[in-house]
Amino acid sequence: MKLYCLSNDPNKPCHILTFREITMMLDCGLSMQSLLNFLPLSFVPSNKLLNLPNWMPSDTTDPDLEGELKENGDRVFVDSPPEFCPPLDKLIDFSQVDVILISNYLCMMALPFVTEGTGFKGTVYATEPTLQFGRLLLEEIVIYIEQCPKSSFATQWKNFVHKCPYPLNEAFKPKSWKQIYNMKNVNASLSRIQMVGYNEKVDVYGALQVIPASSGLCLGSANWVISTEHEKIVYLSGSSTLTTHPRPMDHHALKNADVLIMTDLTQTPISNPDSMLGVLCVVVGLTLRGGGNVLIPCYPTGVVYDLFECLSGKMQELGVSNCPMFFVSPVADMSLAYSNILAEWLSSVKQNKVYVPDEPFPHALLVKSNKLKHFKHIFSDGFSTDFQEPCVVFCGHPSLRFGDVVQFIELWGNNPRNCIVFTEPDFDYIEALAPYQPLQIKVAHCAIDTSLNFTQANKLIKDLKPKTLVVPECYTQPPVSAPNLTELVIGSHVESSVIPYKWGEVINLPLKRKQGQAFMDTNVAQKIVPVEVKPGISLSTVTGALNVKDNVHSVQEISGDFVPNQLVKYEWGSLNITEFLQKLSQEGVNDAKVESLGGNVIVIHLQDEDALIQLEDNSTHVVCNADENLRTKLRNVVMQCLKKF
């Protein structure tokens, strides 16, 4: 069994697992850190961004590089449509992938890169919410980028990246970055997904079985159990033990695995989600009371549902419930609609509301009462009419590189009464704001990440008791943001051996196939004659034709035109020395000398015949000087002293 790591970001995982001649991809996350190196895309031309000065390395005069890089303060940005860092495609041919298992909608953003134009012919498995919300995320990002086309693409800067200032000079593999896919590829990749339910057993070419178990992170998120009759592998990605709106995490299905692959832990190890939510509510309340607006860059699904619920209640308490909330996204309407109809994937508290005249989420009531208004874009019909200040706006993209958030920063960025609140943990907020500086708007960092933290992860590992634990190498070291907090690591566990891995590595996992399952034809089974070799243990030979089809082994009756030797017998047991010497005497061999060499090894010397017989637990050796008749005689005596079946 081998594991390939194709992603440099453990929170946007992509792995290849090869097992029993099956090649599986575990998630296909898309690293978007590359976006922070590009200038924002704006569908309304920004004088500030247009007037940024060009930047060139001091020792370079290449005319092809002219205009590709822009400078703002101490940062340099690429003036081009943004590019993304797809999974590594050098280690494995994607056309050889048989199955892709998707854990949650945030871990499928690279799916079109993997399945389209690569010769991929396999099957993708995901839950219904993962498919539906993943579709919204994919569509949103394509719409955002396509609505702001650029006339040219910058390419030459990648040859001079080592001469650029920090952080551009530390960009990860920029020559492997790709432009975003189109909607045709999005739809084609999504059409390959086969929906599965929690605890549904899915057969993979007869070789193994995969089962999704609730991971508790978001609607439809799953951990995957990959099993055979005798082996169990668990892939744990993006899980949460906190009580929010999704169905709780299923621990039982993950226990006692031979191998546990753990990734996608929290990106905010020193922050508490509940504390951050409390700070967020206070910041929003104070800003609105002061007559300012609040801008919250977000994804169109996920934690945003909890924010609607918490903020609406807090705004009521603080007496600012008359301030409207706006949800602006090309997929806002679909997101709100889907969240209220996927009842089976919700927590029991939310599920119970479905069976009474109530909505699972309060945002449905907020929409009906006009306290939450949703629009596709800020230029959509009705937005300018309904828009009033002060207000709270939720919109994308959290990277601040495209989407309606770019226009709101232009609109509100120079007013210190306004506030931008960062709740998504995927992007460094200082780097996200860098191309817009200088700004007067207040900034609050309240990153809310409900994924497992290191304390929870270590406790979970202790409870699950895997034989082997496989984790990204960075999880075995304290985070860069807190190098002295040595407790923020995946520690050693008595019952588990820990194997770290990193980007581009191929590691061998210590799982050897020791047993396999075979089915036997009833006609073959009826001819079995068991022989008891020990109390409670019987053996028998089986004569039949072994057939292997779709990784299923079966022993079938041999056809009539083939007649095997029915008299074949197999010896077993240990040799009785006294009986053996008596048999030798009957054959006229009386000069046997027995010598024990220790360790259950006995040597019998036949001095007159110049021969030697060495007896061990599992073998017998007859040594004589080219006397084939004597060797045959001695062999027959040995066989007579052994039991047969």
Automatic annotation (TrEMBL):
What keywords are assigned to this protein? Cytoplasm, Nucleus
For this record, an example GO cellular component is: integrator complex
Q: Does the keyword Cytoplasm apply?
A: yes
User: What name does the UniProt record give this protein?
Assistant: Beta-Casp domain-containing protein
Query: Mind listing the GO biological process terms from this record?
Result: snRNA 3'-end processing
Query: Where does this one sit in the cell?
Result: Cytoplasm; Nucleus
Gene3D superfamilies, per database record: 3.40.50.10890, Ribonuclease Z/Hydroxyacylglutathione hydrolase-like
Looking up InterPro entries in the UniProt record yields: Beta_Casp, Integrator_9su, IntS9-like_C, Metallo-B-lactamas, RibonucZ/Hydroxyglut_hydro
Ranges in a coiled coil: none
From what superkingdom does this record's organism come? Eukaryota
Q: Name one Pfam family in it.
A: Beta-Casp
Indicate the segments forming the Beta-Casp domain, all copies.
304-433
Family membership, please give it. Belongs to the metallo-beta-lactamase superfamily. RNA-metabolizing metallo-beta-lactamase-like family. INTS9 subfamily.
